[in-house]
């Protein structure tokens, strides 16, 4: 995929910390930002986690559930979704999915950094896509979700939609001990790098399917804008590029551009005699 100038300009800059960060709203707004990170000093890897508030009520849960169901219905009837499904069912991508799954009947789905589905449209659309995939494909198994900005209301709605909300912050470092689909739309580059670092062995990398920001776009950006600090934080992304097969998502529709622009499927195929670079 040749990333356009428009695509590259929409890439988010890396924050100073490579882990999760909560960003305070601008201009006095009290809504939670759906930025994808939280400061490492606030959440250590594996530290137990609970929603940022401890109150919810049935009315709020019902309203959010109805809102989510309407987004799921809207997305399911869109041309964007049909093209998305057609891409998954294509011969080339199906071959990669079968290779990753191997003898396993199902791929577990892990969703990192979904953001606030209560406050913003892009997270609602992104979650709707994951829900529709789970409904459509029998090879998708259990769905686990984590984002440190989730409220108690959001956590309860996610559970009602069939997702398990993790009770600890993995910092994106889940090891793919079995075939796993990581659904990470528009996360920060540092979170993708955490995931790769935790799985920096041939067997585990070959068992990963990753949906998220285009690694090719990251590479093209760094080739134009030399930035040693950014290169260091994305070193695993750059090192894995030569083993990566990427399928870009067509998100030109105005309704879905913000939620899915610059997104791609990533498959890693590494033979056992390859020497992974030490990162």
List the defining traits of the structure above.
9 strands; single chain; two-stranded antiparallel sheet; seven-stranded mixed β-sheet; 279 residues; alpha/beta
Strand order of the largest sheet: 4-3-2-6-7-9-8
Class based on secondary structure composition and strand pairing = alpha/beta
Query: How many β strands by DSSP?
Result: 9
State the helical fraction.
Answer: 40-55%
Secondary-structure element order, as H and E?
A: HEHHHEHEHEEEHHEHHHEHE
**Main β-sheet description:** 7 strands, mixed
Region (Disordered): 25-60
Family: Belongs to the SRR1 family.
Protein name: Protein SENSITIVITY TO RED LIGHT REDUCED 1-like
Domain SRR1-like: 95-267
Describe this structure in words.
The chain has 279 residues and is an alpha/beta fold. The chain contains 12 helices and 9 strands. It has helices at residues 5-9, 58-76, 79-89, 91-101, 121-136, 152-160, 189-198, 202-205, 215-224, 228-233, 235-240, 254-260, and strands at 47-48, 107-112, 140-146, 164-165, 168-169, 180-184, 208-213, 244-248, 263-268. This is Protein SENSITIVITY TO RED LIGHT REDUCED 1-like. Belongs to the SRR1 family. Residues 25-35 have a biased composition (Basic residues). InterPro entries: SRR1-like (IPR012942), SRR1L (IPR040044).
């Amino acid at each position: 995929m040749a990333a356009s100038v428009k695509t590259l300009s929409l890439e988010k800059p890396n924050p100073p910390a490579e882990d999760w960060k909560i960003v305070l709203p601008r201009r006095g707004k009290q809504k939670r930002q759906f930025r994808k990170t939280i400061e490492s000093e606030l959440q250590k890897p594996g530290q137990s986690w609970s929603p940022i508030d401890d109150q919810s009520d049935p009315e709020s849960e019902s309203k959010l559930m109805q809102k989510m169901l309407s987004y799921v219905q809207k997305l399911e009837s869109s041309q964007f979704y049909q093209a998305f499904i057609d891409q998954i069912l294509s011969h080339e991508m199906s071959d990669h999915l079968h290779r990753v799954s191997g003898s396993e009947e199902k791929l577990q789905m892990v969703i990192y950094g979904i953001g606030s589905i209560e406050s913003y449209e892009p997270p609602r659309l992104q979650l709707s896509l994951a829900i529709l995939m789970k409904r459509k494909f029998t090879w998708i198994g259990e769905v686990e979700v984590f984002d440190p900005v989730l409220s108690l209301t959001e956590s309860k709605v996610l559970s009602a939609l069939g997702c398990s909300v993790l009770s600890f912050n993995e910092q994106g470092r889940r090891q793919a001990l079995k075939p796993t689909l990581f659904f990470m739309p528009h996360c920060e580059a540092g979170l993708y790098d955490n995931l790769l670092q935790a799985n920096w062995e041939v067997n585990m990398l070959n068992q990963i399917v990753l949906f998220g920001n285009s690694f090719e776009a990251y590479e093209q950006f760094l080739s134009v804008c030399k930035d040693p600090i950014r290169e260091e934080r994305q070193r695993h992304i750059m090192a894995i590029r030569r083993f990566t097969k990427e399928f870009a998502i067509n998100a030109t529709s105005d309704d879905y551009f913000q939620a899915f622009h610059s997104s791609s499927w990533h498959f890693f195929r590494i033979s056992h005699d390859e020497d992974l670079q030490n990162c």
